[in-house]
Design goal:
heterodimer; A: mainly alpha; B: alpha/beta
Chain lengths: ~325, ~350
């Protein structure tokens, strides 16, 4: 176990380093990219721009700039060029919003995907399965911005059941918090429900034909016991890995479209703005933030997988 | 008179496939009595596994069609509703499968897997079921059973896994035990041990055993009666002595002839039955063995009945040849076999 953690830590450091270098390098090669002008503002004189270039060190070689930026990030002093806000404290403030969006959405998509995938597998080939297949493919194919906008139009504008965007802190009013987040949760969950229920269905249909499922039936277990204890138990294992990665990227800000459409002040929204303005510091921090969660959750899903499947050992 | 446990009459199983209707079992009848071991022999695809799995309702699917009856203590298993079968499976009829590594759940401890079967049929605390599982594992010769009950199947050797399967199958003292090629996936030395185990434990339980195999050595070792299946039909049935010393059907001759013998010089090539088993989608008219049988004649285009050979009413076969013909034709080089290319 100690070796496992050490190896994962080493790979985390490597991945964070590689991610930061690549992201930084991308902005070096964008032709029209000039951070000094962005900081100086629209009306700035050439002298001001030159001063800023000097002050921020934009005229220094690539590796010096990279090193300075990383130093600012790890000392928590990095500011964005657009609004002169401290990037790290922005992330700290905004992360609860993203958590509020992603965690319940993940619970919803897992539960619904397990139920729908199981129904599909049990009724494979029947009309219910076909209907769910069509629904799942639709859910996977529909772009998130379109789905989000459609949900808003239908259930906040046409039928004013839910508020038209906005965010209420959980601490100030939990009911309002949930009320404001129902549509965003759905917008995120639909894609994953479609995908996960398909994966579960095909896993389950593979497992059903395994010999040990026949043994379970031969023991005299009821159909429900056979399905839950043997078929579902084994079908869920590959989903653990999928879930770890999807959940990690969403926490890192991958729900940026949803946050933008529903005007949720999470890190995704911050990232979306930063990308629009070519504002390097938030993008750097965001990329490393995501990379951190990907490493963390892929290690966690390996641990969970080893707990679920005794044939897998995580050490050595 | 021994008690008849299982009475199978005209059992037919067919499956609807994309290429048409596949008749896997075509009208099979036999009985199993208490204390008796019945072996079903035949090559792959002869319908022997489908026959025994149908007895447990394990071949049921939307594409499967069944006819005939299989009565256990007078109750028909073929038409029984699923919940009734669930109560019978594992308790009245239990099964040992061919490959014990894939037949055991990879993610559950073996003790729990045995206990699961007990709990499916008896309302007892889980701890008590586990205790019985440990005791059963000890009885089938698994050393250190208490500790091993907490192991997973992949931590056992092949032979030990099959012992777990046996412990599971016998956990509720079923009246019928079905063993579907239980030794095929094992080393020869382990095979003998497992056969001994099955023989001894089923003698203690005084149940009926159906033993499916393609290994005639195993048949001679364990069976009281033998059923020979070919292309979904019984072609011969009789006592072990009937089948080994006085086989009536040319297919049985071929089976016996293809076994190497230790009391003879080995032949340059082991004799094989020419040709391949017929398609079950489009079976040949008449006797199913006729296309491969060197002794076939005109009448074989009509299906012979499974008829007793007088005076021994327990020995039946499905062939048009007269007993005298058979005796003359089955000897090749002083041993039983199927003469290749003999004129008819």
């Amino acid at each position: 176990m100690a070796g496992f953690i050490a190896r994962r830590l080493a790979s985390a450091v490597l991945l964070l380093f590689a991610t930061s270098v690549v992201v930084f390098a991308i902005f070096e090669v964008i032709p029209s990219y000039n951070p000094a002008r962005a900081i100086a503002g629209r009306e700035a004189t050439a002298v001001t721009v030159a001063q800023i270039t000097q002050k921020f060190g934009f005229d220094k070689p690539f590796y010096v700039q990279y090193f300075n930026t990383m130093k600012l990030i790890f000392t928590g002093q990095i500011i964005d060029y657009q609004d002169n806000l401290n990037v790290v404290s922005q992330f700290v403030h905004r992360f609860p919003v993203t958590l509020s969006l992603v965690v319940p959405a993940a619970v919803i998509w897992m539960l619904v995907a397990i139920v729908l995938g199981s129904i599909s597998a049990l009724r494979a080939g029947g009309w219910l399965d076909r209907g769910l297949t069509v629904a799942a493919v639709t859910g996977v194919s529909i772009p998130v911005f379109l789905l989000s906008a459609t949900l808003l139009y239908l259930f906040a504008f046409r039928l004013p059941w839910f508020p038209n965007t906005g965010y209420v802190q959980f601490g100030s009013n939990p009911a309002q918090w949930a009320y404001h987040l129902v549509l965003p949760w759905l917008a995120i969950a639909v894609l994953f429900i479609g995908f996960y229920s398909r994966v579960l269905r095909s896993n389950a249909l593979d497992i059903v034909n395994q010999d040990f499922v026949r043994t379970a039936r031969a023991k005299g277990l009821t159909g429900r016991q056979v399905f839950i204890r043997h078929v579902l138990r084994n079908s869920l294992m590959p989903i653990v890995t999928l879930f770890g990665l999807d959940f990690a990227t969403l926490l890192g800000g991958a729900a940026l479209v949803t946050e933008a459409v529903f005007n949720l002040p999470g890190i995704g929204q911050y990232e979306a703005n930063a990308i629009g303005q070519l504002d390097v510091p938030p993008i750097m921090v965001g990329a490393m933030f995501t990379a951190f969660f990907v490493v963390l959750f892929s290690a966690l899903s390996d641990v969970v997988y080893a707990l679920l499947d005794p044939r897998i050992r995580i050490s050595s | 008179m021994t008690e008849q446990l299982l009475e199978i009459e005209d059992l037919e199983v067919s499956f609807a496939t994309e290429d048409g209707v596949l008749r896997a079992v075509g009208g099979v009848s036999f009985t199993v009595s208490r204390g008796e071991t019945v072996a079903i022999v035949g090559e792959s695809g002869s319908g022997k596994s489908v026959t025994v799995m149908t007895l447990m309702g394990l071949t049921r699917s939307p594409n499967a069609r069944f006819a005939g009856t299989a009565r256990l203590h007078g109750e028909d298993l073929v038409s029984a509703p699923e919940d009734k079968l669930e109560a019978i499976r594992g308790k009245e009829i239990a099964m040992i499968f061919q490959d014990p590594i894939s037949a055991l759940s990879p993610v559950h401890r073996v003790g729990a897997q045995i206990a699961e079967q007990i709990l499916a049929h008896e309302k007892i605390p889980r701890a008590a079921a586990l205790e019985r599982a440990i005791e059963l594992m000890g009885r089938v010769g698994i050393p250190n059973a208490r500790a091993r009950a907490r192991s997973y199947p992949h931590e056992f050797s092949g032979g030990m896994r099959q012992r777990v399967m046996i412990a599971m199958a016998l956990s509720l003292s079923p009246s019928v035990l079905i063993a579907d090629e239980p030794t095929t996936a094992l080393d020869v030395t382990i095979q003998a041990q497992i056969l001994d185990e099955i023989r001894q434990l089923s003698a203690e339980a005084d149940n009926g055993v159906i033993f499916v195999t393609h290994d005639l050595g195993v048949v001679a070792d364990i069976a009281d009666r033998v059923l020979v299946m070919y292309a979904g039909r019984l072609v011969e049935q009789g006592s072990v002595d009937d089948i080994f010393y006085d086989p009536q059907h040319p297919y049985t001759w071929g089976l016996l002839g293809s076994v190497p013998r230790v009391d003879r010089d080995p032949p340059r090539r082991l004799p094989a039955i020419p040709g391949a088993p017929p398609s079950l989608l489009r079976p040949p008219p008449g006797c199913p063995f006729q296309p491969r049988c060197p002794h076939a004649f005109d009448r074989c285009r009509e299906l012979p009945p499974l008829a007793p050979r007088l005076p021994d009413a327990g020995h039946l076969d499905r062939c048009w040849l007269t007993p005298d013909d058979k005796r003359a034709l089955r000897e090749t080089d002083g041993r039983i076999g199927l003469t290749e290319g003999a004129a008819s």
